[in-house]
UniProtKB/TrEMBL annotation:
It comes from the Eukaryota. It comes from Hemibagrus guttatus. Residues 142-194, 333-373 form the RING-type domain. PANTHER family: E3 UBIQUITIN-PROTEIN LIGASE ZSWIM2, RING FINGER AND SWIM DOMAIN-CONTAINING PROTEIN 2. InterPro entries: Znf_RING, Znf_RING/FYVE/PHD, Znf_SWIM, Znf_ZZ, Znf_ZZ_sf, Zswim2. Gene3D superfamilies: 3.30.60.90, Zinc/RING finger domain, C3HC4 (zinc finger) (3.30.40.10). Signal peptide: none annotated. This is E3 ubiquitin-protein ligase ZSWIM2. Residues 225-276 form the ZZ-type domain. SMART domains: RING (SM00184), ZnF_ZZ (SM00291). The lineage of its organism: Eukaryota, Metazoa, Chordata, Craniata, Vertebrata.
């Protein structure tokens, strides 16, 4: 059979570049035209593309129309849909004849799946009138984006009225939008069995609930190595190329510090994105350039850390109760892709992702990163035992109030009536002090009273003695005021001038009325002594 295009023995640079581009791009299958025709939609773009396999392959994208060669959409169909290895001879050919296409359809090639977390599969309860969800294995893929479900770790939904297979919720939203269902209670067809997958209203509810699972760190660029600081300049996180010592645990360098040979005694491994594996580097790293860099895909020789046992115990754990929001549709563990059930233990990581305790414990015994956003959980330079302890707002407010009261008590000064201050080291043990009783205030004030109740003076000596006593009493009355603890001469002069205005404040602070206070009794005694003196003089 004659071919319209020349048979290639190896992939060119342009084809290899398009293959890399297709593997790093999320593309959805919106419709299939037979076994070899597909309507594709690229994530983030509104335009759809039609791809047909044959001799030659065709695509209506601008790249294919310009180069007349394999584009990323054709490469995606060959490597994602039909699972051809990128080095297979059929994968870089500009076209395939009918016999070769039939061979690809009847004998699909399986790519070696990436190592995934040993998930703890939790069977979900069967809903009334619907099909039970099928279990998810490592080889299961989404029929729309052709990504492995366990490896992608996106929330899934299952076909409730047909096959029971699982599909990414985000992919089903793209699939439903293409079907253009205008009815609110309309049904969405399953991309596998073509039966009713579920209602459009239910799908919108799933999309809304799934938004709660995504965190801020998950939206960060992959060039940011979250949770990894540079051991030399202490910048955190390292952005761009990150270098890891193959001997020292938890030792990382940024690109600038690595070029200055800050740790020359050991070799290093490098990675550009946080979701990539570490790749060994060449020995002459002092003269490192982009052209001289040599890496291997083998992770041998790189020390792999795990989360210590004491850190695992510190991570917060919550139990699912009947009214928990974790029971809403679409909320699920991102490792086993199963919903949460009442009574299960859920562990929360510092990046705020939630997993089944059994699932995440098994994962953290083999890795030090979050399985969703690859945020490093433990690093000695940044780890603190209080990172996961919630801050109690009431305790913090109470502490501020106690400090304010202590500051005011230090400035408040009442001569003769000492303020009882009880200082304690632990703020949480401080209890509100009981109010001062009226009897204690009266007793303390009586101690200040002047006992001069004599009604008569026999001679002038006694009169002069009485006059000196009254002057001393007036001076003691002037010193009895409420003010600040500044005992300089200027403050005393101001205090004596403000004696009349401060006296009502003194009564209010003591918590008693002027009629019942002992201070008022002292004033009345003073007036009585003045009358007695006048009578004695006459």
């Amino acid at each position: 059979m004659l071919r319209k295009r020349v048979w290639r023995k190896a992939a060119g640079d342009a084809v290899s570049w398009h293959q890399d581009e297709s593997l790093s791009t999320t593309i959805f299958i919106l419709k299939e035209f037979g076994p070899t025709g597909f309507l594709l939609k690229e994530d983030g773009e509104s335009k759809n593309y039609k791809v047909f396999l044959g001799d030659p392959h065709t695509c209506n994208c601008g790249t294919f129309q310009k180069e007349k060669d394999l584009c990323k959409h054709i490469c995606w169909v060959l490597m994602r849909k039909f699972r051809l290895p990128r080095d297979h001879e059929y994968c870089f050919q500009p076209g395939l004849v009918e016999r070769q296409i039939l061979e690809v359809l009847q004998h699909p090639y399986k790519m070696a799946s990436a190592p995934s977390a040993p998930a703890q599969l939790c069977s979900s309860e069967e809903d009334d009138g619907t099909i039970r969800q099928k279990g998810i294995s490592d080889d299961d893929i989404c029929p729309i984006c052709q990504e492995e479900l366990i490896r992608k770790r996106l929330p899934v939904a299952h076909c409730r009225f047909g096959c029971g297979n699982n599909v990414h919720i985000s992919c089903m939203k793209v699939w439903a939008d293409h079907q253009s269902r205008s009815e609110t209670d309309g049904m969405v067809n399953c991309p596998l069995c073509r039966e009713n997958f579920g209602t459009l209203k239910m799908l919108h509810e799933l999309v809304k609930n799934v938004g709660q699972l995504y965190t801020t760190s998950e939206r960060e660029h992959l060039e940011k190595h979250l949770g990894i600081p540079c051991n030399n300049c202490r910048i955190c996180p390292v952005v761009g190329k990150c270098f890891k010592c193959t001997v020292c645990s938890y030792y990382h360098l940024c690109e600038d510090c690595f070029k200055r040979s800050c740790h020359p005694q050991h070799s290093f491994a490098v990675r550009t994105k946080r979701n990539q594996s570490w790749q060994l580097m060449m020995e002459n790293k002092k003269s490192l350039t982009d052209d001289q860099e040599v890496c291997t895909n083998i992770d041998t020789g790189v020390t792999s850390e795990v989360v210590p046992e004491h850190v695992l115990k510190i991570l917060p754990v919550t139990q699912v109760h009947p009214s928990s929001r974790l029971l809403e549709r679409g909320i699920q563990c991102r490792l086993c892709l199963q919903s949460f059930r009442v009574g299960q233990q859920v562990k929360i990581l510092p990046c705020r992702h939630k997993f089944h305790s059994g699932c995440i414990k098994t994962w953290l015994q083999q890795s030090i990163c979050c399985p969703v956003d690859w945020h490093v959980i433990y690093n000695p330079l940044t780890w603190s035992g209080n990172d996961n302890k919630p801050i109690c707002t009431s305790t913090r407010t109470r502490s501020a109030q106690v400090n304010l009261i202590h500051q005011q008590n230090a400035e408040l000064f009442v001569p003769g009536i000492g303020l009882q201050r009880k200082e304690r080291s632990d703020v949480s043990k401080l209890a509100p002090q009981p109010p001062v009783s009226l009897e204690s205030i009266v007793q303390n004030t009586r101690a200040l009273s002047i006992d001069n109740t004599q009604s008569a003076m026999p001679n002038s000596c006694e009169s002069s003695s009485l006059q000196r006593t009254m002057e001393g009493s007036r001076r003691s009355q002037q010193s009895l005021f409420v003010g600040f603890s500044n005992h300089d001469n200027e403050s005393q002069r101001k205090a004596s001038s403000l004696r009349g205005r401060i006296r009502p404040l003194r009564s209010s602070l003591c918590g008693i009325s002027p009629e019942n206070s002992t201070i008022r009794q002292v004033d009345e005694n003073q007036k009585h002594l003045a009358v007695t003196k006048a009578q004695h003089t006459h």
